[in-house]
Amino acid sequence: MKKILIVFVSLLVILLLILFINTWLLTPLEREQYQPQSINVDKDRIVQHMSEAIRFRTISILQKTISQKSGSQKPASEDSFLEFTSWIKQTYPNLFTKLEVQQIEGYSLFLKWQGSNESLKPILLTAHYDVVPVIAGTESLWRYPPFSGKVAEGYVWGRGALDDKGAVISMLEAASLLEKQGFQPERSIYFSFGHDEELGGINGAGKVVEFAKENNIQFLWSLDEGAFLFEGLIPGVEQIMGTINIAEKGSVTLKVIATAEGGHSSMPPKQTAVGILAEAIIKLESNPLAGGLDGLSSYLLDEASRYMPFSKRMLFANQWLFKKLIEDKLSDSVVMKAQMITTTAPTMLSASPKANVLAIEAVATVNFRIHPRDSIKSIIEHVNRVIDNPNVRVEQVEGWGNPASKVSSIESKGYQTLVQSTYEIHDSVVLTPGLMIAASDSRHYSQISENSYRFNPMLVTPDDIASFHGTNEKISIDNLILATKVYNRIMVNGSKK
Ligand SMILES: [Zn+2]
Q: Which of 204, 170, 256 is nearest to 440 (CA)?
């Protein structure tokens, strides 16, 4: 008995030693150091331009409403879109003399800054200037009117400030500063400013891509909106973490159709179409697609865990023992769950048209956001396997299927450029690759780019993130300056051989 106890205690001590040693060894990694770059920017000018940009009501949804009604592709607030592109040209006259300008579909701007070495593949910097509407009735919740571009409390306020006019203005400011200094890129730099990203980018980025294909333009890499530098994103981690998204999730919508006999509601069978459907949906919700903290989904937390307090760090340092526990805990957060797996979201239901008529068919619409490890085919197979009922069939909704993007390299010149340019301006951040859970115009641009990255060099807080497509959207003046400087370095570093 005593012997068993000794063995048990010894094993426990060994286990604890392993746990502790692993935790002590999990410390911040050494990274390459870059020479800090100081760039003088004209703060007042940038703020003024950002404020003016917000005042144009380049609202996507109006555009959709009108084009559906009239069958035309013209935006409803056509004037705002055209006024905005004219305003850009007037605001940056020297830059626009230098650049080759294409106005694609009338509204999206595709610009080329000719490089000195024609044999080098060009790079592409993109952003979109359309914005989502402000939900009717919520205007009064805004601290300052959403299209006022009010400058107050260290911010420029208004719809589109972060998503994504801030990037448009910062890129233009960075380019115009370089132009003024007589900068000559070696590699050509292209810019694309889309006008319908919030509607899927088909007439903006999509047509830019068509134009590029027709003209045999292929990019070494592209940069679009995406993740940010985050402050206070992960509880317990004070370190500022930044994510450069190297892939984006896809999306597919399926109809799950349950069938039954039908008839009068006074004589229902044991199970109705509605009951069969309900069972199928419950099965789908309780059997999500497999996945966890690995590959693309693990970079950020693996890195952030090095800055966690001891107890949390111990879990991450000993994933051989605690991986399941970590994943279960993370799955409580809808954001983290979306990072780890293909999500399942039943969104619409229909069945009998009348209260006293049994449904012949009950239909649920289910939207899946596809992790790069899954495909549309593997999702349909999963759904059929999980439901496993001959009275239920699964159909893909036409036009609603985009596979996940390809995963771009973290060894490439493009990724290295983004990392170096950010560190040159903001030294106290830790950058990691990541996965974009929302859709972006990169879906289109990646067709003509060897690698595509999704990243805004701006430092955001959870409060900023909540304002995306929501109330009180704003961009801090510090972020406008930061982004202008980083984009400046991206253009300088990225256009070199
Ligand atoms: Zn956006």
A: 204
330 Cα–ligand 1 center, Å: 26
Residue 225 C-alpha from the chain's centroid:
7
475 within 8 A of 155, measured Cβ to Cβ: yes
Centroid of ligand 1 to alpha carbon of 73 (angstroms): 20
Cα 249 to middle of ligand 1, angstroms:
15
CA 69 / ligand 1 centre spacing (Å):
25
Of 105, 164, 179, 197, which residue is the catalytic one?
197
* Cα-based distances in Å from 230 to 270, 281, 430: 54, 36, 10
Q: Tell me the CA distances in angstroms from 493 to 96, 226, 382, 424, 487, one per residue in order.
A: 22, 20, 45, 11, 10
Residue 47 has pLDDT above 60, yes or no: yes
The tokens of 412 are what?
A: 């490439």
* Tokens describing residue 480: 């406008």
Kindly give the distance from the C-alpha atom of residue 473 to the centroid of ligand 1, in angstroms, as a whole number: 13
Structural domains present in the chain: 43-247+405-494 (3.40.630.10), 249-402 (3.30.70.360)
| 438 close to 200: Cβ distance less than 8 angstroms | no
Using the mean position of ligand 1's atoms as its centre, give its distance from the Cα of residue 132 in Å: 9
Q: How many CB atoms lie within 10 A of CB 264?
A: 9
Beta bridge partners of 434: 245
| Nearest Cα to Cα of residue 246 among 290, 295, 209, 212 | 295
| Residue 197 annotated as catalytic | yes
pLDDT(139) > 60: yes
pLDDT digits (tens, 9 = 90+) for 300-344: 999 999 999 999 999 999 999 999 999 999 888 888 899 999 999
Predicted pLDDT of residue 77: 62
Q: What angle do CA 279, 280, 286 make, to 5 degrees?
A: 90
pLDDT tens sequence across 406-442:
999 999 999 999 999 999 999 999 999 999 999 999 9
CA of 494 to the centre of ligand 1 (A): 23
- Position 21, amino acid: I
- 130: annotated active-site residue: yes
Q: Please identify which of the residues 105, 130, 327, 424 carries the catalytic annotation.
A: 130
Q: What integer pLDDT is reported at residue 279 of this predicted model?
A: 98
